[in-house]
Amino acid sequence: MENMPPNEKSVILRDVAKASHQAIISLLGESITDAVLFHLKRNLERNPFEVLWENPKVFYNGLREIFGQEGCKVLVMGLAEILAEKFGIDLNPRGLVNLMDSEDSRSVKELQKILKEIANLYASSEKGGKVDE
After folding, report:
1. Integer Cα distance of 37 and 47 in angstroms
2. Using 50, 70 and 90 to split pLDDT, how confident is the model at 7?
3. Which of 71, 87, 112, 130 is spaced 20 to 30 A from 118 at the CA atom?
4. How do residues 34-54 score in pLDDT, each as one tens digit?
5. Could you tell me what percentage of the chain is helix, strand and coil, using 3-state DSSP and rounding each to the nearest 5?
6. What is the domain range of residue 117?
7. Rounded-to-integer distance, Cα 48 and Cα 61, Å
8. Number of structural domains found in the chain
């Protein structure tokens, strides 16, 4: 995935952002979601979903700064449950927390695989399209 064409990566990130935005809204409401994403972008100094793709631990730490340790875990597990239900994927909530809170390169690759699957399913459900495998 490291040698992925830039356009493919941007499509994946766009669709992951949209799917995640919808999931966060269902947990927190639209205003709080917008505030959280604003603070993440400001604190991370770039698109939070690019950070999630490249360094999930930094993204997770950004959420932890906003919600605290337990609040961050609850949010990520809630997102996992919503995304798993919406897209019919096997996404273990605690497993997602562990992947995001790890700096291990295997964890990053596994999370990227999950994000790509979410992007594919989102694209299929919203536009009838699919990101190339």
Report:
1. 9
2. confident
3. 71
4. 999 999 999 999 999 999 999
5. 80, 0, 20
6. 6-124
7. 11
8. 1
